[in-house]
Design goal:
about 400 residues, alpha/beta, eight-stranded mixed β-sheet, six-stranded mixed β-sheet, 12 helices, about 45% helix, binds benzoic acid
Length: about 400
C-alpha cells in the first residue's frame, strides 16, 4: 500500500513537472524595448518600435513559434540613467532580449550590463564603435550601422566633389566624434582635409555662434552630425544664416532622415550618405513601405527599417531554435549566418555582429532622400579592437 502511494505521488509530481514544462514552452518571449520616447530622439525611438512590431505582426504575432510580450523603458537618451534603466528590463522584468537603443552613450552602458548578465541585446540604431569593437560579444548584435560607416562614405564623396577644406560640426559625444572620424578618413583618401572641428554638448541647439565661426572660416564644405529634433533645427538655422547658398552642407543621412517635413525648403538639394534611401529598387522595400504606410499612416524612415530588421534578426535566431531561448549557442549561430532580407537591400553580419552593407548617396528632393547611387559598396566597419574578428 505504502509503495503504491509513493508510486502515485511520483507519477503526480512527474505529471505536474511535465505540465509546467509544457506551459513554459508556450510562455511568451519577453522583449524589452529600451528606447528614447522623449527628448530630441523621441521620434527615432517610436519609429524603431513601429518597425519591430510591424515585422512581428507580419509573422502572425509570433517569432520561432512563440508569441511576444513587450516591456518598455524610456531611456531619455540619458547615459547616466542607462544602467538603472537596463536593470529594470533585465532584473525586474526578466526579459529574454533587449532591443535598444538610439544614443551611443546610452548603448555603451547597456552593452556592459548585457555582457555582465549575458542578456541578448539587439541594437536597432546606436552606432558606437565600442559595442562592435572592444566590447563586442556573442550576445550583442546590431541591425543598424557603425558611426564610422556613413561618415567614411560621405568623406569620400565630399573629396571627390572637390571639397579640399572642410569644417565639421557635431554634438560632443561618441556618435558625433566617431562620425567625424569616419568622415576624415574618407575625405583624406579622396584628397581633402578638415580644417576645424566645432562641437556643442548634446542635445544643445544654440548654433548661432558656431554658424558665425563657419562663415568666417570660409570652408569648401561643412560636415554635420545631428539627428532628430536637433537636425531639424540645425539645417533650418544653417539656411536661415544664408550659408547653404555658398557652402554645401554634407552629413550622414541622419541629418535629413525622418526630418524633411519639418526642414522644408532649408534641406532642398542636400547630399547625404546612409544605408537607406527613398526610391530604392529593392522588392522588399516596396512591400515594406506599403505595409508601414498602411499600419502607421506615414512613410517609414531609416529608423523604422532598423527596427524591422532587428525583429528579422531575432526571428532568424528564434526560428532556428524553435523559440527555445535557452539554446543560446544555436540561436547566436543562426543570427550570425543569416542573410537579412532588408528593405535597405539584403545584408549579412560581420564577425563583430555589425551589418556589412551598401551606403547610398542621397539627394533631398521635396520630402524625399532620393537615391542617387552607391557611395560605398558592401562596406564593413573596421571593428577595431574586437576579439571575435
Ligand atoms: C547615436 O547616438 O549613435 C546616433 C543617434 C542618432 C542617429 C545616429 C546615431
Amino acid at each position: 500500500m505504502r509503495n503504491h502511494r509513493a508510486t502515485l505521488a511520483r507519477v503526480a509530481i512527474a505529471a505536474a513537472l511535465c505540465g509546467a514544462a509544457g506551459a513554459a514552452a508556450q510562455d511568451k518571449i519577453k522583449v524589452g524595448f529600451m528606447l528614447p520616447y522623449t527628448g530630441t530622439y523621441a521620434a527615432l525611438g517610436t519609429a524603431i518600435e513601429n518597425g519591430f512590431r510591424l515585422y512581428v505582426q507580419e509573422q502572425g504575432g509570433k517569432l520561432g513559434g512563440r508569441e511576444l510580450e513587450y516591456f518598455k523603458v524610456d531611456d531619455e537618451s540619458e547615459p547616466s540613467k542607462a544602467v538603472d534603466n537596463m536593470n529594470k528590463l533585465v532584473k525586474r522584468d526578466n526579459v529574454d532580449v533587449v532591443v535598444g537603443t538610439v544614443h551611443s552613450g546610452v548603448v555603451m552602458a547597456m552593452a556592459k550590463v548585457a555582457k555582465d548578465t549575458n542578456t541578448l541585446l539587439v541594437i536597432p540604431n546606436a552606432g558606437a564603435g565600442a559595442v562592435t569593437g572592444p566590447m563586442c560579444a556573442p550576445n550583442i548584435f546590431r541591425s543598424s550601422f557603425s558611426n564610422w560607416q556613413p561618415g567614411y562614405a560621405m568623406g569620400k564623396v565630399a573629396g571627390e566633389r572637390g571639397a579640399k577644406k572642410v569644417v565639421t560640426i557635431t554634438w560632443k559625444y561618441a556618435a558625433g566624434d566617431e562620425s567625424v572620424e569616419g568622415f576624415k578618413e574618407g575625405l583624406k583618401a579622396s584628397g581633402g582635409e578638415v580644417i576645424k572641428d566645432l562641437t556643442l554638448p548634446f542635445p544643445n541647439v544654440e548654433f548661432q555662434a558656431l554658424l558665425t565661426d563657419i562663415a568666417a572660416s570660409k570652408p569648401d564644405a561643412v560636415y554635420a552630425f545631428f539627428a532628430g529634433g536637433g537636425a531639424v533645427k540645425f539645417v533650418k538655422d544653417y539656411a536661415a544664416a544664408g550659408l547653404n547658398r555658398t557652402i554645401p552642407l554634407y552629413g550622414p543621412g541622419f541629418l535629413t532622415d525622418g526630418t524633411l517635413e519639418a526642414q522644408g525648403a532649408a534641406a532642398q538639394g542636400m547630399l547625404t550618405t546612409l544605408h537607406y534611401a527613398d526610391g530604392l529598387d529593392v522588392a522588399k522595400d516596396k512591400v515594406f513601405r506599403a505595409d508601414y504606410h498602411k499600419a502607421y499612416n506615414m512613410a517609414p524612415d531609416v529608423y523604422a527599417v532598423q527596427g524591422y530588421d532587428a525583429a528579422q534578426m531575432l526571428a532568424a535566431g528564434l526560428g532556428a531554435v524553435k523559440g527555445d531561448v535557452h539554446k543560446r549557442n544555436e540561436l547566436v549561430a543562426a543570427i550570425e549566418t543569416a542573410r537579412i532580407d532588408s528593405p535597405r537591400g539584403a545584408f549579412t553580419l560581420s564577425k563583430s555582429h555589425n551589418p556589412v552593407q551598401d551606403i547610398y548617396l542621397r539627394k533631398v528632393v521635396g520630402t524625399e532622400n532620393r537615391y542617387e547611387g552607391v557611395a560605398a559598396k558592401a562596406l564593413a566597419d573596421p571593428a577595431r579592437g574586437c576579439a571575435m574578428k
